[in-house]
């Protein structure tokens, strides 16, 4: 078993009187893809934001490779943790290449930055084709790719992805998931928030289902996919439908 890299214990986060996370415990092993799934308002984004210091935590601990995670977002990046927020955020007035350069702000050497950009173009060939275009002129899927690529330019060891497939067409969603698989194979650990629970279960080594701010159920992606009760309770689907063999579609 690989070492546990990220350990979250007894995490509680509130917004005023609204409790968003209650005694949440999460572990992510080095090299894994771990997904956080759950209904709207379950606390998924709050969880990612609390790891990167974007929301203050009331109680609990977050450690990465045995060290407390800094509560300041810019310091968290230096610990090797990078968050790609929801919403395909890019600098719309900058070109694709300029967006990538901004992501490389931790790297001083021009030659190294150029080499990293070339690596991104191998992973995201469509970005190479559009490298001189302003981000505003990209499609939704291309903007999502650019947001992820910009995050990778900070050389993360742990990449936090918040709903990378949100609002994308099904074929584009598949290519985003393929990209996440490639990122994982390159040795980067991935913590993913995803509304598309079935795809997340198929992709992930391990999944946590949040419900009303608590971890309600957890298990390997394969175990959750094989559990009809889980599929019915959380997705309103049986196993056949979840596997894409929905008899009602014929
Ligand atoms: N800035 C905020 N101020 C007040 N309440 C908030 C704030 N952000 C989130 N909440 C509340 O905290 C709870 C958890 O929200 P969060 O955004 O983490 O859920 P989520 O699972 O990511 O939802 P979604 O899938 O809809 O993005 C919800 O009840 C939400 O209304």
UniProtKB/TrEMBL annotation:
This is ABC transporter ATP-binding protein. Keywords: Amino-acid transport, ATP-binding, Nucleotide-binding, Transport. It comes from Anaerotruncus massiliensis. The keyword Cytoplasm does not apply. GO terms for molecular function: ATP binding; ATP hydrolysis activity; branched-chain amino acid transmembrane transporter activity. It comes from the Bacteria. InterPro entries: AAA+_ATPase, ABC_transporter-like_ATP-bd, ABC_transporter-like_CS, BCAA_Transport_ATP-bd_LivF, P-loop_NTPase. Residues 6-237 form the ABC transporter domain. Gene3D superfamilies: P-loop containing nucleotide triphosphate hydrolases. Belongs to the ABC transporter superfamily. SMART domains: AAA (SM00382). PROSITE patterns: ABC_TRANSPORTER_1, ABC_TRANSPORTER_2. SUPFAM superfamilies: P-loop containing nucleoside triphosphate hydrolases. GO terms for biological process: L-amino acid transport.
């Amino acid at each position: 078993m690989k070492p546990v890299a990220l350990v979250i214990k007894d995490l509680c986060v509130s917004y005023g009187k609204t409790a968003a996370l209650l005694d949440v415990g999460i572990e992510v092993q080095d090299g894994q893809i771990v997904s956080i799934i759950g209904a709207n308002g379950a606390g998924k984004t709050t969880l990612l934001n609390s790891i990167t210091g974007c929301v203050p935590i009331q109680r609990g601990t977050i450690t990465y490779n045995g060290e407390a995670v800094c509560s300041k977002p810019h310091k968290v990046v230096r610990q090797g943790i990078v968050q790609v927020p929801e919403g395909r955020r890019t600098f719309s007035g900058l070109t694709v290449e300029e967006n990538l350069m901004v992501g490389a702000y931790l790297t001083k050497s021009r030659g190294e930055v150029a080499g990293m950009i070339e690596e991104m173009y191998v992973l995201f060939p469509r970005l190479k084709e559009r490298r001189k275009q302003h981000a505003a002129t990209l499609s939704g899927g291309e903007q999502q790719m650019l947001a992820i690529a910009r995050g990778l330019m900070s050389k993360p060891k742990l990449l936090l992805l918040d709903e990378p497939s949100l609002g994308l067409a099904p074929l584009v969603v598949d290519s985003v998931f393929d990209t996440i698989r490639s990122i994982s194979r390159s040795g980067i650990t991935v913590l993913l928030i995803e509304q598309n629970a079935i795809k997340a279960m198929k992709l992930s080594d391990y999944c946590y289902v949040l419900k009303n701010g608590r971890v309600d159920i957890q298990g390997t992606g394969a175990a959750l996919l094989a559990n009809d009760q889980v599929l019915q309770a959380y997705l309103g689907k049986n196993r056949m439908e979840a596997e894409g063999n929905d008899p009602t579609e014929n």
